[in-house]
């Protein structure tokens, strides 16, 4: 009896020592500097369907890393958004960017989740046991922003960040919190179009943020004012980062009072007031 109990205890200890921690623990704090580079060196892997941006030493990580699936704007490829996607990877996320210039259906984004699930299960893969398939966000720009909304209907996707999203999506099917971003000077996807998505999102916690002075292509190349708030949002919802909560939630709401960055911020009644 004693030997059997000892064997069980040793098995539990071994499992605890070798199983990567969940995303809610172990990720280093940023000190609130969401726009600064993260602590991880990064790597890029270009595949037939998706391009992966991820922490370079992920095979030796003790953590399970959350996932962000990305959709490109019309005619664009992941390389156009390379700086933003690498910024997220540097903060510990695995980013799966669809290799398609027509991302609206969200098919390649969902396929990216399937591909990462297979890599996580493959003992030969650097991603083996390192992908947190329980923490997945969807983001994208323009047509890809609409694709992020489409992907948000997938039960595996926990939260969405549509950046200047095109109109071909139905946010009624989204089940997780949404951070809808517009550009004050966007003449392609007018802020009013993004506000329409926000107004229709009364069934989920939704935040609308309009970046002061931003045009439709501000996020292309250097992500500028889009890097910090998107990183904070994903660290809050996919890493349970307590520092990020006050950026969007509660009575303080950092973006609500930051008039240097934002020309308009709105939060619906489902956003936590505390």
From TrEMBL:
Enzyme class per UniProt: hydrolase
Pfam families associated with the record: PETase
Organism: Nonomuraea typhae
Leader sequence segment: 1-23
Keywords recorded for this protein, A-Z: Periplasm, Signal
Location of the protein in the cell: Periplasm
Catalytic activity line of the entry: (ethylene terephthalate)(n) + H2O = (ethylene terephthalate)(n-1) + 4-[(2-hydroxyethoxy)carbonyl]benzoate + H(+); a butanoate ester + H2O = an aliphatic alcohol + butanoate + H(+)
Gene3D superfamilies (alphabetical): alpha/beta hydrolase (3.40.50.1820)
E.C. no: 3.1.1.101
Protein name: poly(ethylene terephthalate) hydrolase
Every PET hydrolase/cutinase-like domain range: 51-241
Domain of life: Bacteria
Lineage: Bacteria, Bacillati, Actinomycetota, Actinomycetes, Streptosporangiales
């Amino acid at each position: 009896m004693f030997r059997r109990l000892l064997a069980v205890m040793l098995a539990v200890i071994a499992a605890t020592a070798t199983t990567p921690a969940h995303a809610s623990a172990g990720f280093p704090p940023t000190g609130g500097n969401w726009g600064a580079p993260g602590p991880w060196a990064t790597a890029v892997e270009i595949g037939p369907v998706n391009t992966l941006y991820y922490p370079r030493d992920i095979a030796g990580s003790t953590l399970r890393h959350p996932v962000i699936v990305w959709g490109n704007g019309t005619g664009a490829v992941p390389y156009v958004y390379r700086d933003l996607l690498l910024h997220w990877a540097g903060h510990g996320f695995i980013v799966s960017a669809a290799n398609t210039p027509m991302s609206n259906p969200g098919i390649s984004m969902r396929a990216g989740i399937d591909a990462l699930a297979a890599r996580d299960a493959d003992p030969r893969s650097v991603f083996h046991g390192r992908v947190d398939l329980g923490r997945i966000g969807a983001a994208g720009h323009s047509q890809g922003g609409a694709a992020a909304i489409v992907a948000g209907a997938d039960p595996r996707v926990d939260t969405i960040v549509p950046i200047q999203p095109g109109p071909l999506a139905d946010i009624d099917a989204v089940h997780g919190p949404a951070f809808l971003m517009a550009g004050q000077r966007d003449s392609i996807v007018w802020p009013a179009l993004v506000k329409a998505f926000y107004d229709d999102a009364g069934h989920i916690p939704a935040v609308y943020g309009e970046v002061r002075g931003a045009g439709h292509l501000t996020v292309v190349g250097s992500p500028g004012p889009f890097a910090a708030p998107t990183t904070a949002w994903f660290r809050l919802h996919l890493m349970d980062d307590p520092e990020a909560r006050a950026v969007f939630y509660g009575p303080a709401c950092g973006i609500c009072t930051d008039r240097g960055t934002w020309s308009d911020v709105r939060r619906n009644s489902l956003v936590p007031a505390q």
